[in-house]
């Protein structure tokens, strides 16, 4: 089987809701990372076999196959195809999987995987809410078949986060401490210049807008919970954000033909499902499955990126896997840096790749919870 290599990865800064990137059309936002990736690698955009972008809530500026729109805005030749995929929060991580699988199968040689999301312009769940305005039912709750299988249980990421906190015995204080560390780590990484090499500045923005330098446990403690009697507040949840990101995946033949030097190879990729009502727990069994399939152990992995949809998700995952905090989200995560849903998967991979190189490690593992009770896992191996 052909090996899939990561040639390079790049991302825009992550803009906060209503911030510096909020007014940028989604096609232009997506095009920015595509253009930057081509410029950095020197690859001929006409040689790209496919562009696969993750995006959710594909209405308005994100409708009509945003991957195709973005690549055309980026100036790619018209013969280059594009496709948009939606695996909820894992959309662009799944884009990497599809790109790698195309290369590994011998179907393609050069594929760009990435994602784009302008959550300021198109708020989260807009597609669902718009459908309700036109009299259409929700994706699951009003389905007789769904109710027959799952009953009338509440299906909500916020409810799931609360259930996780209760089941794993996570106090509000523990989750707030985790959130504070996310901000502290992101600020330290920013100040050290760790993100500079992976960010292609946009609209005058050269850094991520999310990390809060003035936050504290006292400020977090003053926030109301998202549900009466609950433990979860906005402080321990990921931020609404705007961004794009992209990764170039290549075959060995493409490396030779285009004179490209790979930075890493895809060692393993998989996706698993879990209870859709609990929704956010799938990274736990998905990680166990990936390690078993890859023949690696927890101790073989130098770095982990576990998306911080909520602090509870990562803390429960750490409890179950036994992974130490100093190997997890070492430069902060979605609580501080933001979670531009469609773009987060390849944003995480871009950051993970750079940190793996900086530390001289060998393996890094990325996973994230996704709507419907899903989780992708990708393990990359550094080269050089």
Automatic annotation (TrEMBL):
* Chain segments annotated as coiled-coil in the UniProt record: none
Query: Where in the numbering of this chain does the Thiolase N-terminal domain appear?
Result: 5-252
Which terms does the record give in the GO molecular function aspect? acetyl-CoA C-acetyltransferase activity
* Presence of keyword Cell inner membrane: no
Task: List keywords of the entry alphabetically.
Answer: Acyltransferase, Transferase
Q: Which domain of life is it from?
A: Bacteria
**InterPro entries (alphabetical):** Thiolase (IPR002155), Thiolase-like (IPR016039), Thiolase_C (IPR020617), Thiolase_CS (IPR020613), Thiolase_N (IPR020616)
| Active site (catalytic residues) | 89, 339, 369
Which PANTHER family does the annotation name?
Answer: ACETYL-COA C-ACYLTRANSFERASE, BLR7806 PROTEIN
The record places domain Thiolase C-terminal at 261-382
What SUPFAM superfamilies does the database record attribute to this sequence? Answer: Thiolase-like
- Similarity comment: family membership: Belongs to the thiolase-like superfamily. Thiolase family.
The entry's protein name is Acetyl-CoA C-acetyltransferase
Q: Does the keyword Transferase apply?
A: yes
Could you tell me the EC number(s) of this protein? 2.3.1.9
């Amino acid at each position: 089987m052909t090996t899939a290599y990561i040639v390079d990865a790049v991302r825009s800064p992550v803009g906060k809701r209503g911030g510096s990137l909020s007014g940028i059309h989604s096609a232009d936002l997506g095009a920015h990372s595509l253009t930057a990736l081509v410029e950095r690698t020197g690859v001929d955009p006409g040689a790209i076999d496919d562009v696969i972008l993750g995006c959710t809530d594909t209405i308005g500026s994100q409708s009509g196959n945003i991957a195709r729109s973005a690549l055309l805005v980026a100036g790619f030749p018209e013969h280059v195809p594009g496709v948009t995929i939606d695996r909820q929060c894992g959309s662009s991580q799944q884009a990497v999987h599809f790109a790698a699988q195309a290369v590994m199968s011998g179907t393609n040689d050069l594929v760009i995987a990435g994602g784009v999301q302008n959550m300021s312009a198109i708020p989260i769940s807009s597609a669902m809410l718009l459908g309700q305005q036109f009299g259409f039912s929700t994706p699951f709750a009003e389905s007789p078949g769904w109710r027959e299988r799952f009953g009338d249980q509440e299906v909500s990421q916020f409810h799931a986060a609360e259930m996780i906190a209760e089941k794993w015995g996570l106090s509000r204080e523990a989750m707030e401490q985790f959130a504070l560390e996310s901000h502290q780590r992101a600020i330290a990484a920013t100040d050290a210049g760790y993100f500079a090499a992976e960010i292609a500045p946009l609209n005058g923005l050269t850094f991520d807008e999310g990390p809060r330098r003035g936050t504290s446990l006292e400020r977090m403690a003053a926030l109301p919970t998202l549900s009466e009697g609950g433990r979860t507040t906005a402080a321990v949840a990921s931020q609404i954000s705007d961004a794009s990101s992209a990764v170039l995946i290549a075959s060995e033949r493409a490396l030779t033909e285009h004179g490209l030097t790979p930075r890493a190879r895809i060692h393993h990729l998989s996706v698993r499902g879990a209870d859709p009502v609990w929704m956010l727990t799938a990274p736990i069994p998905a990680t166990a499955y990936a390690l078993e399939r890859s023949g690696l152990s927890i101790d073989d992995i130098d770095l982990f990126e576990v998306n911080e949809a909520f602090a509870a998700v990562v803390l429960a995952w750490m409890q179950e896997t036994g992974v130490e905090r100093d190997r997890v989200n070492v430069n902060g995560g979605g609580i501080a840096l933001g979670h531009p849903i469609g773009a987060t998967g390849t944003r995480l991979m871009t950051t993970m790749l750079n940190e793996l190189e900086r530390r001289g490690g060998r393996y890094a593992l990325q996973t994230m919870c996704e709507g419907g009770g899903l989780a992708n896992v990708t393990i990359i191996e550094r080269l050089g």
